[in-house]
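Researcher: Let's continue the batch. This sequence belongs to Zinc-dependent alcohol dehydrogenase family protein, and it's 360 residues. Same format as the previous ones, please.
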Amino acid sequence: MKALVFHGPGQSAWDSVPDPGIQEATDVIVRVDAVTICGTDLHILKGDVPEVRPGTVLGHEAVGEVVEVGSDVRTVRPGDRVLVSCITACGRCRFCRKASFGQCLGGGGWILGHRINGTQAEYVRVPHADLSVHALPGSVGSADAVLLADIFPTAYEVGVLNGRVQPGDTVVVVGAGPIGLAAIVTAGLFTPERIIAVDLAQTRLDAAKRLGADVIVDAGSGPEQLVADLTDGLGADVVIEAVGVPESFEMCTRMVRPGGHVANVGVHGKPATLHLEDLWIKNVTITTGLVDTSSTPMLLRMLAAGRLPTSSMATHTFPLDSMEEAYDVFSHAAGTGALKVVLGGQSHTALARTAPSPKE
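Model: Same format as before. Here are the structure tokens for Zinc-dependent alcohol dehydrogenase family protein:
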């Protein structure tokens, strides 16, 4: 089969690799219909995630059809159309029993495209399938569903829930990329007084406005003063960091009010300064986190009911074998205006007619 293979920092290629096969009784093999690229994949290519070894197939988000199941799989069967979660969960360890699937000790957590081969391929092996893939209703399109593999649960759980967004809050989202936009959408579920989006790219700020931000501001045009002016000098109740660079994190800590919450979602490849000389007296809560995806079933129900505006976030579509072109477009988002790129996404029926068996 073909797959996007990481060959070291700054190096990747759409290569021929062996087809995946069942290794454990809890595995499934999924034929990929739709896949997307995450900002975390770009961090891997920059060398920010050294655990990823050269030769690894990248990607941790996909929709596809189950073509083979291990003998212990109970929740899906061949022919089922499924969402492949970015997080794999054994369901038995102390963390999984608390629905903290991201911290799974039983061979799960974030492993796809990280510690084992991932989803940016024609086929993918998914371990611990009973908790790690989700059957999709026929009414949900693949290009929409794939956005619930990572960005929506991540924004909701690590940003909005960790940030303790409440009705009447002032919420600032720093970074209006896909995660930031999903944070704006899901923060709106809690009826805050206002949502302020901060970014450097006007196209992303425009998207933030369409998706529910009440105020948009260029990161270079004094967002800290604007937040102070809008809150009578107090600062924001919740600030969500969705970039992953030291400057944005430090900006977030300057914009939060006493007793407020800073929810870091961004993947950081460099140290950031924590100014405890200013923060120690402010009763500020700072949270970090890897998504657990415990909210995915609920978000899927909302998507099926038409309550999540996912379609407007996929700005570019490509066939699956245009992976290298898609990476180029996504990695130059400032120039291309890319928010989320989706590869594949043709109908389940068409895929079943044209895709080879993983054993061929």
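Researcher: Any comment?
Model: Residues 132 and 217 are 38 Å apart (CA to CA).
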